[in-house]
Amino acid sequence: MTKKGGADGAPAASDAVLLGPAQVRALAERLEVRPTKQWGQNFVVDPNTVRKIVRVAGVGPDDIVVEVGPGLGSLTLALLPVVRHVTAVEVDPRLAAALEETVRDLQPGNVHRLRLVAADALTVTKLPGPDPTALVANLPYNISVPVVLSFLQHFPSLQRVLVMVQLEVAERLAAAPGSKTYGVPSLKAAWYGDVELAGKVGRTVFWPAPNVDSGLVSIVRRDPPQTTASREDVFRCIDAAFAQRRKSLRAALAGWAGSAARAETALVAAGIDPRTRGEQLDITAFARIAEAAAALDAPAP
């Protein structure tokens, strides 16, 4: 017989008390909270959606999950019964102050699993307690890509990411070389792991309903490309290539490399036709370009 429950025998997510539309609005009214565009707040009011996020994230009793922008706690309440701990990073001081009380009211047996960090996620480089193993969040649309890249950079312990973002952003992050949506976010995310679009989410699960659909993005960490170039050098090469994405790499990388001739030399050394455009190359190719460019400045043996 399969044992039913989450971490430490806590109720399974399907049995846990979650927030529905009425509870979300009542909680917001009690806290005098009105969703603001400043912080990109759209609260999830559908329990099935947060259950799906937890399921697709693949987290379990051994995971330390960091959640960015917990808001009123819809996703937090779905995570707590399943994982070891949730570290919630919330920039809105009213919501940060109320989250622990909400968990204590609805899931008193899980309040010990919650750690709260009242901060802007874009400034967070350290977290209390054990290192996080997963990032699971409904991210504000206006900071979604910077947050994902920042947390992957500063927390190498993160093995999995599952975030809900604007569908257009999700498609850009998961895009493959050669597609119209492929670009800087696709490549920088690919430096850290394997990225895929893990699902689509309609507008009606949010309050207030946004003007766009949302998507789930999954990132499973793997080693970055083998290269002597630094991540910073590779990312600068990517930025330069897509600042003028319609130009050939020989032209687009001229400023970054020092001249069009130096860009061509680096590209040829990396095994890439200088007439190629950046949108045709994967992250490994950009690592080769950055490495070849650095070699041009290396002292002769």
UniProtKB/TrEMBL annotation:
**UniProt-listed Gene3D superfamilies:** Ribosomal RNA adenine dimethylase-like, domain 2, Vaccinia Virus protein VP39
Q: Name one Pfam family in it.
A: RrnaAD
Compartments, as annotated in UniProt: Cytoplasm
- Organism field: Humibacillus xanthopallidus
Annotated protein name in UniProt: Ribosomal RNA small subunit methyltransferase A
Q: For the Ribosomal RNA adenine methylase transferase N-terminal domain, which residue ranges apply?
A: 49-223
Name of the gene this protein is made from? rsmA
PROSITE patterns linked to this entry:
RRNA_A_DIMETH, SAM_RNA_A_N6_MT
Q: Which UniProt keywords are listed?
A: Cytoplasm, Methyltransferase, RNA-binding, rRNA processing, S-adenosyl-L-methionine, Transferase
**Chain positions recorded as S-adenosyl-L-methionine binding sites:** 42, 44, 69, 90, 120, 138
One GO MF term attached to the UniProt entry: RNA binding
Q: Does the keyword rRNA processing apply?
A: yes
The entry assigns this protein to a family as follows:
Belongs to the class I-like SAM-binding methyltransferase superfamily. rRNA adenine N(6)-methyltransferase family. RsmA subfamily.
Answer whether the UniProt record assigns the keyword Methyltransferase to this protein.
yes
Annotated EC: 2.1.1.182
The catalytic activity, as recorded, is: adenosine(1518)/adenosine(1519) in 16S rRNA + 4 S-adenosyl-L-methionine = N(6)-dimethyladenosine(1518)/N(6)-dimethyladenosine(1519) in 16S rRNA + 4 S-adenosyl-L-homocysteine + 4 H(+)
Q: May I have one GO cellular component term?
A: cytosol
The record's function comment reads:
Specifically dimethylates two adjacent adenosines (A1518 and A1519) in the loop of a conserved hairpin near the 3'-end of 16S rRNA in the 30S particle. May play a critical role in biogenesis of 30S subunits.
